[in-house]
Amino acid sequence: MRSVRSVKGSEGTAQPRAVVTGGAGFLGSHLCETLLAEGWAVVCLDNFLTGTPSNVAHLVGRPGFELIHCDVTENAHVRGDVDLVLHFASPASPVDYLEMPIETLRVGSVGTERALALARDKGARFVIASTSEVYGDPQVHPQSEDYWGHVNPIGPRGVYDEAKRYGEALVTAYRSTHGVNTGIVRIFNTYGPRMRPNDGRAIPTFIRQALANEPITVAGDGSQTRSVCYVDDLVAGVLAMAASAHPGPINIGNPHERSVLEIAEDVRAATGSRSEITFVGRPVDDPKVRRPDTTLAAEVLGWRPTVRWAEGLDRTVAWFREALSATA
Ligand code: NAD
What we know:
This protein has helices at residues 26-37, 94-99, 101-122, 158-178, 202-211, 231-243, 260-271, 295-301, 309-327; strands spanning 17-21, 41-46, 65-69, 84-87, 125-131, 182-187, 190-191, 216-219, 225-227, 229-230, 250-252, 257-259, 277-280. It is of the alpha/beta class. The chain has a domain at 4-188 and 230-255 and 291-307: NAD(P)-binding Rossmann-like Domain (Rossmann fold). The protein has a seven-stranded parallel beta sheet with strand order 3-2-1-4-5-6-11, sandwiched between helices. Strands 7-10 form a two-stranded parallel sheet. Strands 8-13 form a two-stranded parallel sheet. The radius of gyration is 19 Å and the shape is globular. It starts with 16 loop residues before the first strand and ends with a helix. Residues 21-22, 24-28, 45-51, 71-73, 88-92, 107, 111, 129, 131, 187, 189-190 line the site of nicotinamide-adenine-dinucleotide.
């Protein structure tokens, strides 16, 4: 993988500087942490809608790290040079975006435009966190980047899926109209430390339930599939995209497909839980299958996931054990 430092170019030795919108969220906080570790200065913009300052509390006070409380739909101005803008601000779990449909649409539209304008004004590389949800409930399997998707714009999930589709169109227009060096990554389900136990996504829900020896609630009969990527792999993929000049879209996700029931059983085993597995109704428009074709990421970025499911799950369970016992 190319070093993310190459984004800076060869003109100087100054410390490169990144802006991460949504930097206090699950993925954003890991990106901030890795960028700092790789020698970047990092400005984290977040309004704490679904993220929390505690996700980056360990970074506050480190040289080069700035945390700014700001809503990027209102303002995304940053003083000084910026070499890279990673636009990750957006509610991401169905529980969040169903509760905040307008905020989700606004951050995907107005928020994306403000972040793009920042990149344009600073001459920075721009990477947007798009999503596998742009494929909707796919009729093509696995999903490669040239598949246009199967999305219900007026279904409950449409606020998220269409915000991301609009975001991709806007990014493309800023590239062609203003010459911004843009990249689109389509992120598939990612898991790891700092997910919220109550964010409604399958893995944190199952872990929370298993650690409490409560029933593990699998939607439908659990035969629907997900392909889950450990957060460290995702970060490596996003930073490889940042270091390239490729416009994307490029899928970043783990192509190993598992049924939701299998995930629940593995969580039960990894936690040593006595929980029973129970079945509940499936949400509206819940996709039946989901698996990235990652050929392009491998070819263009030299990226492939390396963290095994058992290992990623153990690390995630260990983090949840500690986080949940601290709040008990
Ligand atoms: P998250 O909810 O943990 O993080 C999102 C962050 O954005 C939060 O800190 C939130 O407070 C912030 N935010 C929301 N609206 C904002 C606004 N108007 N101004 C400033 N900050 C705002 O979610 P996540 O899982 O870390 O997802 C991050 C990004 O990656 C999102 O854009 C999401 O769509 C995308 N993504 C995530 C996944 C995944 O599996 N986690 C999959 C596909 C795409």
